[in-house]
Write a structure and sequence with these properties.
Mean pLDDT: 93
Number of strands: 7
Oligomer: single chain
Distance between the termini: 54 Å
CATH architecture: 3-Layer(aba) Sandwich
Number of helices: 10
CATH superfamily: NAD(P)-binding Rossmann-like Domain
CATH class: Alpha Beta
Shape: globular
Helix content: 40-55%
């Protein structure tokens, strides 16, 4: 069955690739991104692929704008079958030195942003008694990584939000799912990797963490490879609540479930080259 799919944060990366896969399959795509150039170039690509789509340039923190977008989408397509909350920003800093105003922005976009788009479309899904709400979480949504305490907090929050929401909406035929990548080969990490200042007691370990992360990204799944996994979740009639896009996420989550904490901690600090 062809779907109407809403995607936030589709100007680049995984969201963009998912939109193109859906369009190629004949599904209708609606979405937005704060990146005007990304939206404009994707509009051209989707037009070349064919099918029905509606894109906007919009900031997820614009609550009234999100509701206006919702109204336009429902007016145009008549329904929405799946909402993929893909919008998000990263945050890298030793917690002691974290700028809490920037931390608040991270939580606002990553957590409340997802909440806003789900809340906007949930009433129409509930009335139709069907649909899927899919949120982009992360490996760090269940396994916290050092120097990513604020980002981890945002992804733990998304995990908790979706696990709780599932109990509320499944009686109305609405399925809930999480996507949990470890790393994807994009510029996402590079944008946030800033060394602590000279004299910081965390500088050396943060430097080693960044170097290791940059190395791992070289062999991480590409956005189009990750998008194929996300596409399968969107098309699944009854998706699992937890969905990984790469072996590393699956492996680390398995370790997290079964190994003693001391062993897990040792593996993590060695894997990320931050042993004291």
């Amino acid at each position: 069955m062809k779907q109407v799919v809403v995607i936030t944060g589709l100007g680049d990366g995984m969201g963009r690739e998912v939109a193109k896969l859906l369009a190629a399959a004949g599904d209708s795509v609606a979405g937005f991104d704060v990146d005007k150039k990304g939206v404009a170039s994707l509009e051209k690509e989707l037009a070349a692929i064919g099918g029905n789509h509606y894109l906007e340039s919009l900031d997820i923190t614009d609550r009234k704008g999100v509701l206006r977008f919702r109204n336009r989408v429902l007016e145009r397509f008549g329904r929405v079958d799946t909402v993929l909350s893909n919008v998000g920003i990263g945050f890298f800093s030793p917690f002691e030195e974290a700028n809490l105003e920037k931390a608040l922005k991270c939580l606002e976009i990553n957590v409340i942003g997802a909440s806003a788009i789900f809340q906007a479309f949930l009433p129409s899904m509930r009335e139709r008694r069907g649909g899927k709400l899919i949120a982009m979480s992360s490996l760090v949504g269940r396994i916290p990584f050092p120097f990513e305490s604020i980002y981890s907090a945002s992804k733990f929050a998304i995990t908790g939000l979706m696990c709780s929401l599932r109990y509320e909406v499944e009686p109305f035929g609405i399925r809930v799912a999480l996507i949990e990548p470890a790393q994807v080969s994009t510029t996402f990490a590079a944008k946030i990797h800033v060394l602590p200042p000279e004299g910081s007691p965390y500088r050396d370990r943060a430097r080693r963490f960044i170097a290791r992360d940059d190395e791992l990204i070289k062999t991480a799944p590409t956005p189009d490879a990750a998008a194929k996994r996300i596409y399968k979740v969107i098309k699944s009639e009854k998706p699992a609540i937890f969905n990984q896009v790469d072996f590393m996420s699956t492996f680390f989550l398995w370790l997290n479930n079964y190994l003693p904490r001391a062993w897990r901690d040792a593996i993590l600090v060695n894997h990320m080259d931050i042993k004291v």
